[in-house]
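The instructor's notes for this session suggest beginning with a concrete chain rather than abstract definitions. Hand out the sequence below and ask the class to guess, before any prediction is shown, which regions might be ordered.
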Amino acid sequence: MERLDMEKMENLVGGSDYCDTAWLLISSGGFQGDNDLYMILVNSYETHCQGNSSY
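After discussion, reveal the predicted structure:
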């Protein structure tokens, strides 16, 4: 599986607000995908969004 960097992740969510969008998906229950993808999102958020005020 290809490793995603911050720029690629921002492109996937449609802009430079990756951390905000990821937090909304994690916290609101709006994520539509299997458990493995959800855990990838959570791990990515924890890795790349340290210090984000939403967390």
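Then share the key points. The longest helix spans residues 35-48. The mean pLDDT is 77.
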